[in-house]
Amino acid sequence: MKKTSGYSLLELLITLALVAAVFAIGIPSMNTFIQNDRLVTQINTLVGHLSYARSEAVKRSQQVGVCVSSNSTTCTGGNSWEDGWIIYVDIDGDGAFTAGETVLRAQQQLEGANTLGSGTIGTQVTYDYRGFVDAASVGSFSLCDDRGASYGKAISISPTGRVRSGGGVSC
């Protein structure tokens, strides 16, 4: 008598049913995980870039600006921070990006159709040689996705230029 090895059709169907049940439970949780991770990554990127701009202003003893940029080379694009931004050295100190000024970093458009509201900040944050911001740069940012304010992230900029995470979110 030959001994056969392998799986029966019943064993295969039970295994497939268990795998399908695990995927049915796991996939929606994975989507939430991806959305939460995207929000945390994007807000941390903004905090990091603002902190970098502040430290460069102090290090260079020059004004450094962070402005909305949809093309990663100049300050353009209206007031939509989610379209991206650049960090530049404001050599002439006029508070605006002009040709010939050095772009230190550029951020592309945010992924996931997230919105980045700037409240009263407008389209630019300007740090002086001490790392302080002008009055127009004091305020907060709110980063939100399609789930609303309960999942949103916020940061605020103080008059001394310090960036702080947390606070109320308005989406």
What is the topology?
Blueprint: H1 9-60, E1 63-68, E2 85-90, E3 103-107, E4 115-117, E5 124-127, E6 139-144, E7 153-157, E8 163-165
Antiparallel strand pairs: 1-2, 1-5, 2-3, 4-6, 6-7, 7-8
Give a nutshell description of this structure:
Helices cover 30% and strands 22% of the residues. The protein is an alpha+beta fold and 171 residues long.
What would you say this structure looks like, in words?
This protein is of the alpha+beta class and 171 residues long. The chain has one domain: minor pseudopilin epsh fold (3-Layer(bab) Sandwich). Helices cover 30% and strands 22% of the residues. It contains one helix and eight strands. The strands form two sheets. A four-stranded antiparallel sheet has the order 3-2-1-5, covered by helices on one side. β6 and β7 form a beta hairpin. It is elongated, with a radius of gyration of 24 Å. The N and C termini lie far apart (73 Å). The mean pLDDT is 89.
Residue share in helix: 25-40%
CATH topology: minor pseudopilin epsh fold
* Count of helical regions: 1
According to CATH, the homologous superfamily is: minor pseudopilin epsh domain
Termini Cα gap: 73 Å
The CATH first-level class comes to Alpha Beta
Count of distinct structural domains: 1
Strand content: 15-25%
Q: Characterize the overall form.
A: elongated
| SSE succession | HEEEEEEEE
